[in-house]
Design a protein that fits this description.
single chain, about 375 residues, alpha/beta, Lyase, Ornithine Decarboxylase, Chain A, domain 1, nine-stranded mixed beta sheet, eight-stranded parallel beta sheet, about 30% helix
Length: about 375
């Protein structure tokens, strides 16, 4: 017998949502979606948001309906899950090296428009073999290391790798150039300086490709912390921000830049007070409900501090400017802004989508998190 209990019914009041629950403020999310789409249009750039953030085909389709050319993911299984749910244009902005995964990738390319990143001769050879066996094709981006210190070749090696892509009969689509370390530098000037360094490395990679007798069709990259600076650099043709749609606590702590539009918090964990003392309140959303890799969540619209209560509990106390009178009552709803949206989303099976605000809205939809737990 299944003991699964739905978190909410469509049409129900926001007050009826069981806790803990992952809730989207749909009005705020749609405003964020429209703002980023308008920014890309204004700057004449392609927009390919990162679906590894929301992991949801319904959201990916909304982004594409608003003007995105497709979405990014980081894992093959994420791409498969979104394709199964009807997403038609997907870029795996990461390396896939295992032959059995490449065989799956080649089959997926027969169903959707697909791209993938490479950063090694072995990866290119294996990709070419898998695509030939399946009779399919993909767009191939050469990834360069522009400061992340993770995947990617040195910019000066980009030309040689691009030449190998073409020599294997594959379609060279351009450069993958994402600097993850720059996204959470708190100062706007720090992030802008990091982008200037990134751009210098991208230009070196473009020069390497030109020297090999080829043309670089596109540079893709950027994130929610740097996209405005990347857009003004003159080298990027496509932006890959993800978290702008939900705007978690960590991104919101970045200093704002006059060059970037503002985004609203749109993702929340609904929780309620399950225990109360004279000094603190305890809510029913612990680490099983929200990720803590980027810090603890922020209590929304209350002068309260959230502290670690373990897997099932969160402890609320007044902050330095508040008094004990601020503590919520037993059974009262408390809304949390997650520290990091991506891994928080991965803890939940679905979103409860609310229209009309968190105070008095109604449940408009329940969306499955299609690629939850898709790690391979």
């Amino acid at each position: 017998m299944s003991h699964a209990i739905p978190a909410a019914e469509v049409g129900a009041s926001v007050n009826a949502i069981d806790t803990p629950a992952l809730v989207i403020d749909l009005d705020a999310m749609q405003r964020n979606l429209a703002v980023m789409a308008a920014f890309a249009r204004e700057h004449k750039l392609l927009l390919r948001p990162h679906a590894k953030m929301h992991k949801c085909a319904a959201i990916a389709k909304l982004q594409m309906a608003a003007g995105a050319v497709g979405v990014c993911v980081q894992k093959l299984s994420e791409a498969e899950a979104l394709a199964d749910a009807g997403v038609s244009d997907i870029y795996i902005s990461n390396e896939v090296i295992a032959p059995h995964k490449l065989a799956r990738l080649a089959l997926l390319a027969k169903r959707v428009t697909l791209a993938v990143a490479v950063d090694s001769a072995l990866g290119i050879t294996r990709l070419a073999e898998a695509l030939k066996a399946a009779g399919s094709s993909v767009n191939v981006f050469v990834e360069i290391d522009v400061g992340q210190g993770r995947c990617g070749v040195a910019p000066t090696a980009a030309g040689a790798l691009a030449h190998q892509v073409v020599s294997h009969g594959l379609r060279f689509a351009g450069l993958q150039a994402y600097n993850g370390r720059a996204q959470h530098l708190r100062g706007a000037a720090e992030r802008e300086a990091a982008v200037r360094h990134t751009v210098a490395l991208v230009r070196a990679a473009q020069a390497s490709i030109t020297a090999s007798g080829m043309v670089c069709p596109l540079v893709t990259g950027a994130g929610s912390g740097t996209f405005a600076f990347d857009a003004g650099s003159g080298v990027y043709g496509e932006l890959q921000p993800g978290s702008y749609l939900f705007m978690d606590r960590d991104y919101a702590e970045n200093e704002e830049s006059s060059r970037a539009p503002r985004f609203e918090h749109a993702l929340f964990v609904k929780t309620q007070v399950m225990s109360r003392s004279t000094s603190h309140a305890v809510v029913d959303a612990g680490h099983k409900s929200h990720a803590i890799d980027s810090g603890l969540p922020r209590v929304w619209q209350h002068e309260l501090e959230y502290s670690n209560g373990g897997d099932e509990h969160g402890i609320l106390r007044p902050n330095a400017t508040a008094t004990l009178a601020e503590l919520p009552k037993l059974g009262e709803t408390v809304w949390l802004v997650p520290g990091h949206c991506d891994p928080t989303v991965n803890l939940h099976d679905h979103y409860v989508v609310v229209r009309g605000g968190l105070a008095s809205g109604t449940v408009e939809a329940v969306w499955p998190i299609d690629s939850r737990g898709h790690l391979v």
